[in-house]
Amino acid sequence: MHVPDGFIDAPVSAAAGVVAAGAVAVSLKGARRELDERTAPLAGLVAAFIFAVQMLNFPVAAGTSGHLLGGALAAILVGPYTGVLCVSVVLLMQGILFADGGLTALGVNITDMAVVTTVVAYAVFRGLVKILPRTRRSISVASFAAALLSVPAAALAFTLIYAVGGTTDVAIGKVATAMVGVHILIGIGEAAITALTVGAVIAVRPDLVYGARGLTTPLKLRVGGELVDAPAPQPQPAAARSPRKIWITGLVTSLVLAGFVSFYASANPDGLEKVAQDHGIDKKTEEHATSDSPLADYGVKDVGDARLSGGLAGVIGVGVTVVAGSGVFWAVRRRRTEDTGPAAVPQRETV
C-alpha cells in the first residue's frame, strides 16, 4: 500500500507530513516507557522482520497481490508507540534506498501504514484480551483479529486522504469499495502472519511479547482443601533471560525470507496499485526521486541475474533496517535511562 509521488497533491501531502512528524515525536516519547533492556534490541529486529516479510507479496485475487503492513505485529510484540517507530523506519528505508513509496508521500505513508494500522490494531487487541480468557491462545486470537481489521482501516484512511487531496477526478465511492474489498482479503494474510509470528514468540519467550504482559492468572495450589497462591517463581539468571537466541533466530529468518524466499513472491500489483490502475488514480504518478538508486525496485544495479540481484537487495535491506532501527531504539532506551536513572527503570512482568 505504498503511496507513490503524484497520487496526493502538495498541500495534503504536507499536512500528512505534519501529522506523521507529530505522531513520530509522540511515539519517541512513548517508546521510552515501553522499551527495556530486553525489548530495545528486539525492536530493531521487528523492523527488519517487517521489511523482509513486506517483500513477500502473496496472491489474494485474480491479478492482485498483498503484503504485510506490520503495524499490528509491531504493536503487539514491542508496544504501540515503538510499533509506530518500527514501521516508520521500514518506510523510510524503502523510500530512500529502494524507491518504494514516494518521498513527498512519506508523510501519507507513515500516517496510513504506521499510525493508522498500529492504533487500530492495538485498540482492537487490548479490547479483545480484556474479554477473552487469560491464556496464551487468546493472545494469538486477538492478534489475528487486530491485524485483520487494521488493513481495511488503512485502506479506508487512504481513501479519505485521497478524497481530500487526490490529483485525479475519480468516483470516491467506487474507490472506497474497491480498496476496502481487496484489503479485507489482504487482511486475512496479514492476520495469519501476525498470529503465527506472535504465537511462535509466545511459545518460547512470552516475557518478550509486550501485549502479553500480566495476562495470565496467578497459579493456585490446593492446600488442606483450600486454594492458595503458588510461590512466585525464582528469577532466572541473566543469561537465561537474554533475548540473544531469539534475536539471532529472528535475524536469520529475516535474511532467508528477504534473500531467498522473496524471489518466489507474487509479481502481481498489490491492492493499491491494482485499484489505482483500474480507477485511474495513477494518471499523475511521478517518477520517484531515487529511481536511479543502486537498489531501486529491490534489485542491485548491474547484477544481471534476477535471483541474485533481488536476494542481495533483500539482504542489504534487512541489514540496513536492523542497524537503523536498533540505533533509534538504543538512543531512545539510553535517553530513558538518563532521564530516570537505572534504579527507576521498572522490570517487565513475565507471563
Describe the model.
By secondary structure, this protein is mostly helical. The protein contains eleven helices and four strands; from the N terminus they run H-H-E-E-H-H-H-H-H-E-E-H-H-H-H. Strand 3 and strand 4 form a beta hairpin. It is globular. The model is unreliable at 343-351 (pLDDT under 50).
Concise summary:
With 351 residues, this protein is mainly α.
Beta-strand segment tally: 4
CATH architecture annotation: Orthogonal Bundle
Determine the fraction of residues in helical runs and give it as a percent range: 55-70%
pLDDT < 50 stretches: 343-351
At CATH level 3, the topology is: Arp2/3 complex 21 kDa subunit ARPC3
Quote the beta fraction: under 5%
Number of helices: 11
Q: What's the SSE pattern? A: HHEEHHHHHEEHHHH
Q: Describe the global form.
A: globular
| Biggest sheet details | 2 strands, antiparallel
User: Span from first to last CA?
Assistant: 35 Å
Mean pLDDT: 89
Radius of gyration: 21 Å
Number of domains: 1
Q: Class, according to the CATH hierarchy?
A: Mainly Alpha
Sheet with the most strands: spatial strand order:
1-2
Structural class: mainly alpha
